[in-house]
Structure formats: C-alpha cells, structure tokens
C-alpha cells in the first residue's frame, strides 16, 4: 500500500497548494488535511499517516507543540513547512532535515517529496537528525507559555502560570494544574529546559515547582526542607538543591 500523507497548515492557500501537488503523485495517498494543531494531533492518532507536512507557525498550537503532544517517538516522518523563520531553515539545513519554505515551486516540492520517499523506504521517522534540528529550534523559541497535553480525544493547552508542580514518571511527566493531573510524554529534564527558570525550580530530581505557587518552606532534618505548595501539596526538597531553596526564599521575600 502506498504511503499515507497528512497535511497540516493553518493557511488555506498553502494547504491547498500542497494537497494539489500531492494528488498528482500516484505513489502517495492523501489521508486528510488539518488547519490547526489540535486537530492535527487527533488526526495523527486516528489516521496514522506515514508522512506529515507540518507547518511550524500556527496560532494557539505550533508545529513544535504538535510534536510534543504526539510524542517524538510516535511522530511519523515529517516535512516541516515554514514561511519566514530563517533560523528554522538553518537548523533544518544543518541537520539535513526536509523542509519547504512558503511559497515554494513545483520543482522544490517534487525534490522534497522524493527525499521523503527515500526516508520512508528506509523506515526513518523522527530520527536523530530531526531531533537535533528540533532542539535547535527550541533553543530559539521563548520559554513555554502554554503546554499542550492530551485529554481523551482533545488537546488541552495548560497555561504555565496555572501549573503548581510537575512530577517525573519515567519517560513522562505529571503536570499538576487547576486541581487536575495531566500526563505529558516528555522527560522532566527536557520540559525543565523549556520553562522559564525565573518561575520554575527543581526541588528534587523528580519534582519541579512553580516558585510563585510556594506557600512555605520549612526545615526538616539532615539538611532537608519541606516545600508546601498553595494547593496543600508537600514536597521534600533535596539537600543538594540549595540554589533552588535560596531562590525560592528570595522570591517569596520579594512578594
């Protein structure tokens, strides 16, 4: 069976251009098209495409947010579509990742599709080259303002200021916010790198807290401390997290 393709772009004209060119290729099957990140996450889970044309710049939920919600390990082979971000192009070129810059020519599209077919033949999804390019992109992005998480068939966007604390759970994290617990397929270290260090601190190897949501810090024994959050959650602070402790105390003293 020929590879199935999903097109994700919030611009109707750009989406139409990709769809028209894909339909001219008898070796590919168009599975569907999405105009926003949330529907893209659902479509990837339901349609299981082999290849995704993914726009980076989308409102509310960007292409990078889509990958975070799906999970890098589960993401199909991907061609990134970008309109103007030169640093994105440099990141893709440096890591030999397939991309399209809008507007693109028929020749450029054909060359990109041919490379994508070769990757599919080699069964290459989000390999190390793509992950390196994503890391480069993330380093250029501002700190996270919202985090997309799955909630049944929907994708919920959690505002980072609503987060009370985050717990590591193997290769996932549990985000405590708004009286609920949301699971995200990302390591604690990877998520911590994307959060503003002025607002979030690691108090233990398996826990990060929102410093603005700390109610009190109390000494315990053997140099440990107990951090009480404003939702009543009590967390033990590692004695090796002295810098976090000092910063937490300073923030509370300034409020």
Annotation keywords:
five-stranded parallel beta sheet; 15 strands; five-stranded antiparallel beta sheet; alpha/beta; single chain; OB fold (Dihydrolipoamide Acetyltransferase, E2P); about 260 residues; Rossmann fold
Describe the structure.
- The protein is of the alpha/beta class and 255 residues long.
- The chain has two domains: 137 residues, 3-Layer(aba) Sandwich (Rossmann fold); 109 residues, LytTr DNA-binding domain (OB fold (Dihydrolipoamide Acetyltransferase, E2P)).
- Helix content is 35%, strand content 31%.
- It has eight helices and 15 strands.
- A five-stranded parallel sheet has the order 2-1-3-4-5, sandwiched between helices.
- α2 runs parallel beside α3 and α4 packs antiparallel against α6.
- The longest helix is centred in the middle third of the chain and has 16 residues.
- The mean pLDDT is 82.
């Amino acid at each position: 069976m020929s590879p199935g393709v999903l097109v994700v772009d919030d611009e109707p004209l750009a989406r139409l251009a990709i769809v028209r060119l894909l339909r001219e290729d008898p070796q590919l099957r168009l599975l569907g098209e999405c105009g926003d990140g949330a529907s893209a996450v659902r479509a990837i889970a339901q349609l299981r495409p082999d290849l995704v044309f993914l726009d980076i710049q989308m409102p509310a939920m960007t292409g990078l947010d889509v990958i975070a919600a799906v999970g890098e390990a589960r993401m199909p082979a991907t061609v990134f579509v970008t309109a103007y971000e030169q640093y994105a192009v440099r990141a893709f070129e440096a890591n030999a990742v397939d991309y399209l810059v809008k507007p693109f020519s028929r020749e450029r599209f054909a060359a990109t599709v041919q490379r994508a077919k070769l990757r599919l033949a080699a069964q290459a999804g989000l390999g190390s080259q793509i992950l390196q390019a994503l890391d480069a992109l993330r380093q250029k992005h501002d700190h996270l303002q919202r985090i997309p998480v799955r909630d049944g068939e929907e994708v919920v966007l959690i505002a980072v200021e609503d987060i009370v604390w985050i717990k590591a759970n193997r290769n996932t994290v549990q985000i405590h916010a708004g009286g609920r617990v949301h699971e995200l397929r990302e390591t604690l270290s990877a998520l911590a790198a994307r959060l503003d260090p002025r607002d979030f601190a690691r108090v233990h190897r398996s826990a990060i807290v929102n410093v603005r949501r700390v109610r009190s810090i109390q000494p315990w024994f053997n140099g440990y401390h107990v951090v009480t959050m404003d939702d009543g959650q009590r967390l033990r602070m590692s004695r090796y997290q002295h810098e976090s402790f000092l910063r937490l105390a300073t923030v509370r003293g300034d409020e």
